[in-house]
Amino acid sequence: MKKILSTTITPEQNRNIMEAFHYADQMGAPMQNHLTVLWSRTAGYPKRGSLEEQCEYVRAKMDHLKRRHTDFCLQHGIPNFLAWVLENPPHEVENLAKGVHAQIGIHVPPQLLAGYKALLPSWVHDDAATGDGTAALLQPHRHPSPRSRFPGDSVCQYMTKGTDPGQGPIIGKRAGLSRQIDRTARTLNPPAIAAPGTRRMACPMPSHSPAPPTPH
Fold first, then answer.
1. Residue 74 near residue 210 (C-beta atoms within 8 A)
2. Under 8 Å CB-to-CB from 77, ≥6 apart: which residues?
3. Whole-number Å distance between alpha carbons of 114 and 142
4. pLDDT tens digits, residue range 24-71?
5. What share of the chain is helix, strand, coil (3-state, %, to 5)?
6. Which domains does the chain have, with CATH numbers?
7. Residue 102, beta-bridge partner list
8. How far is the CA of 132 from the CAs of 67, 69, 122, 137, in angstroms?
9. Tens digits of per-residue pLDDT, 186-210?
10. What is the DSSP letter of 126?
């Protein structure tokens, strides 16, 4: 099947991402942590390759990152709430082309952020010891402002800027959600009806999920 080239996320993808952020907040586990990964700063990124080769490389690396994120969530018993968008803007930042990179919204409780951040280099680089330390940037809160409608709103607004064609060309899948927060999960496990201003506690792990690994 031929992969489609896009320059924006679709209105449907935009709506799905926004609904996922609202759902995470309603479930008491807002995706207010913002992770940017500049895959062009990893050793294997095919800088001289075609756009399709670059996108394939990034998607393979994203799959690895998402698996490690899932393992972390299972180990610590937290909901696996993750949204991602790929971008490839033509402009340059600090005289370095960003190339194909990822904007990721996640839920990680404050007490676990330091441990999560320490693991990121090994998830992003093939060799964490020699990897570029600027490839991954984790912000506990992305530019919160009085205008934010809910805790993850600023991350949501930043990620859905992908409706602007200026975010550049991507071949293949451009955006996605973890299975625990996709449309099916939101339908099967809706937030409980609550009084205004209150939120349901984060949903438990699905019954079919493997048990968290035993610490050694």
1. yes
2. 205, 212
3. 16
4. 999 999 998 999 999 998 989 999 999 999 999 999 999 999 999 999
5. 40, 15, 45
6. 5-188 (3.30.70)
7. 37, 86
8. 21, 20, 11, 11
9. 999 998 744 344 444 444 433 333 3
10. S
Six-digit token string for 161: 């800027």
**What is the side-by-side strand order in the sheet with 175-177?**
136-139, 33-37, 101-106, 82-87, 175-177
Distance, in Å, from the CA atom of 38 to the CA atom of 124, rounded to the nearest integer, reads: 9
Print burial letters for 55-92: b (CB count within 10 Å at least 16), e (below 16): bbbbbebbeebbebbbbbbbeeebbbbbbbbbbbbeee
Alpha-carbon gap, residue 184 to 65, rounded angstroms: 22
Alpha-carbon distance 94 to 78, whole Å? 36
CA-based max dimension of the chain = 55
Among 112, 122, 105, 103, which Cα is nearest to 65's?
Answer: 122
In 3-state terms, what secondary structure has residue 127?
Answer: coil
